[in-house]
Amino acid sequence: MTSASLENRASALNSQLESLDLAGRLALVAGLEGKAVFTTSLGIEDQVITAAIGTDKLGIDVSTLETGRLFNETVALIDKTEETYGILIKRFYPEQDDIDAFAAKYGMNGFYDSVEARHACCGARKVKPLARALEGASFWITGLRRGQSGNRAETPFAEADLDRGLIKINPLADWDIETIRAHVVTEEIPINPLHARGYPSIGCEPCTRAIKPGEPERAGRWWWENDEKRECGLHVPETAASAIPQQTSPSSSPLSSSIAR
Length: 261
Ligand code: SF4
Hints:
Bound molecules: iron/sulfur cluster
Radius of gyration: 18 Å
Number of strands: 6
CATH architecture of the domain at 3-97 and 129-200: 3-Layer(aba) Sandwich
Order of helices and strands: HHEHEHEHHEEEH
CATH class of the domain at 3-97 and 129-200: Alpha Beta
Structural class: alpha/beta
Strand order of the largest sheet: 3-2-1-4-6-5
CATH topology of the domain at 3-97 and 129-200: Rossmann fold
């Protein structure tokens, strides 16, 4: 499909999705020709989507990026969610060679030292595994919401992702956080216990802190960086994918044996 036809199709889908509720939006995408993949971080928005997919038994793949640096609470929630909805959540792990190359160049926790290093780590642990998760997909479903940050304020329901050659679907784009919180209570959807401890947005453990009252929802992500539009690269791929250092031979990295999955 050409870029123009992908954009036209996304625009038409955006209009169709706008008038539907969440179940209707997901059912519409599941019924389209082409593989649909939902990538979940196990955050509260993503749990709402997973619950809808699992409850209605929709033909949508559910995948997660198991970066090797997740909170224990997040890892436990993967299992609990599978059990609750009787679904399989496919885990996509980083490649050991990429982690070795990062550690050799920056040090295991070198992401604190520069934006370049942070993008390289996110590239190895998230962006490259995401590419594998989306192989063969025509539709990529995400939990992005307009209210999450200024960077996401214009999030449409459907948009062309020209870099990946697919259409990105954001079925919760117009939901606010209060609606999400009420929905998980009403529907008894399991959520990460860290949300109740001041973590509205949860990523890797070393890169996520609790926020203070009045701070933006994503203020606890990569809090040491000044850029208010900071992202991991999943939704702005040019920032992270190109930052992964060249792979080195395993023997050149003294940290190879300490790499998490
Ligand atoms: S969030 Fe932190 S630990 Fe996770 S991939 Fe990005 S830089 Fe690495």
